[in-house]
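Q: How would the C-alpha cells look for this protein?
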Amino acid sequence: MSGVTPTYILGFDIGGTKTAVVLGDDTGRVYDRTGFATAPQRGLDATLDEICTQAERLRHRAARQGRGAEVASVSIGGPLDIQRGIILGPPNLPGWDRVPLKQVIEERLRMPCFVEHDGNAGALAEWYFGAARGARNVVFLTMGTGFGAGLILDGRLYRGSCDMAGEVGHVRLAEHGPAAYGKVGSWEAFCSGTGIARLAAMRYPCRWNEGRASVQDLAELARSGDADARALFAEVGRYLGRGLALLVDVLNPQVIV
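A: Here is the predicted structure in C-alpha cell form.
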C-alpha cells in the first residue's frame, strides 16, 4: 500500500555450490545483492564468517540509503528443524551437523532470524510474488546441487510431520543409473546439477570422466549443438518428465514451478 514503510530484510540462500546474500523487503523487492562460492571444504566456521561479513557490508550500505534491515531470513537445504532453526546435516554441506544457525545469526547480526527449507522458501516466493500467485495447490522444484521441492497444498505451506515434506529427489525412477547420496537411479541422480555431471561420466566415460565436466560446461556444449551433450540432456528431460508425472498424479497441483 502507498505510504506504508516496508520491512527491510537480510536474506541468505545457502547452497552447496554458492551462497547469495540480499537486502530486500516484504514486498519481494531486492535492493542489493552479493554472493560467493560456498566451498564447504573450508569448514563451517569459515563459511559462517563469510556470510556474516557479506551481510554486514550490505547492511551498512542499506543503512546509508535509509533502509535499516530489521530481520534476517535464511533459505537452506534440509534436513533441518525449522522452528528452532537447527541445521541437521544437509548432504551438500558436509560438517553442518546440528548447527544452531538461527541462534548464531541472531547473536552475530543482533536481529531476529528465521530459517526455512530452500524448497519451501522458493514455493512461498513464487506463491506470493511469482508464477504461482493466485493458485491454491503448487509444487516448486529446486534444481541445483541437489534436487527438492516445496509444496503449497490447499492454500498452505506443507512441511510434513518432521519438516521433511518435499524431498522428491529421493524418489527412485530407475533401477540403474547414477547415484545421489547412496541411492542409484533417483530423481536427484538424474536431474540435479551434480547428478547430470555423473550421468555424463556414466554415459560417455571416455569423454567425461567423473569430475571432468560441470553441468554448466555440459549445458554450454548442448547449446552449441554438441551431439553427445544434447543426447545427455534429452535423457535428463525424459527423467524430469517421469518425476513430474508422479507429482501430478499424487498431488494434482494447479502449477508446477
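The longest strand covers residues 18-25.

The chain has a mean pLDDT of 93.

Upvote if useful.
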